[in-house]
Amino acid sequence: MAHALPDIAFFHQLADAAAQQTLPRFRSAQELHVGSKPKEGFRFDPVTDADREAERVIRQIITEHYPEHSILGEEFGATGSGPLQWVLDPVDGTRPFLCGLPVWGTLIGLYEHGRARMGMMSQPFTQERFWADGNAAWWRSPYGEHRLTSRTGISLSQAILHTTSPEPVPRFPAIRFTDLAERVLMTRYGGECYAIAMVAAGHIDICVEYGLQPYDIAALVPLIEQAGGAITTLDGGRPEQGGNIVATGCPVLHQTVLDCLNG
User: Fold this and answer.
1) Cα separations (Å) of 43 from 6, 36, 39, 47, 92?
2) Residue positions forming the annotated binding site
3) Same domain, 137 and 229
4) Domain tally, the chain
5) DSSP state of 30
6) Known binding site for Mg(2+): residues?
7) Bigger pLDDT: 44 or 9?
């Protein structure tokens, strides 16, 4: 049974509230408490006041307006139950946040019966929002608002490949990332969630990400799909529960990429 989904204006309200917590702490001289959480394969997985406080205010607003909805967030886990679930990453890209690099974002996704329906990536420093409203994908910046369309009809040899960090590549030798990198036009690193938004926008063609959690990807799944692209796990399954994820702007190219990564 389909359920009434919130208006996209509510996503903007949540993003505005999160920005009030993240933006004053970004490139700021004020004291920022930085801790580390255990994460397999990493000596340091940072968490800051910005992460915690942004998720706290988002949760509060959701609970006030939709007390029947459940929430899954990176910092405070899962609460509630029901067919509609908000999936939150208050600062996706805490490492670039700490480095003063504006490729982090606040991710707000909405699942219906476990399927990603709507999502938003907000980057308050660049004053950009990328969102999927259930039908189409959009981008808003100081330069205007436009519908997003991913790039299709491109060959693998002309494609631009991205992964956030080269560090996982040797840890996952069964994933033939180097083989893929040798067949594309060029490979870039370090874009975090911003790079996946650029797949939806048609500037990057392929993103490969390792070991994602649901909150890393929930907001970005509908963004890619409603821009015309494809996003799956490495074995071609649905991506909502995370894992090793491949996003492409061109659904025809997607299977070629999966074949190459799987050897």
Assistant:
1) 39, 9, 8, 13, 18
2) 74, 89, 92, 216
3) no
4) 2
5) S
6) 74, 89, 92, 216
7) 9
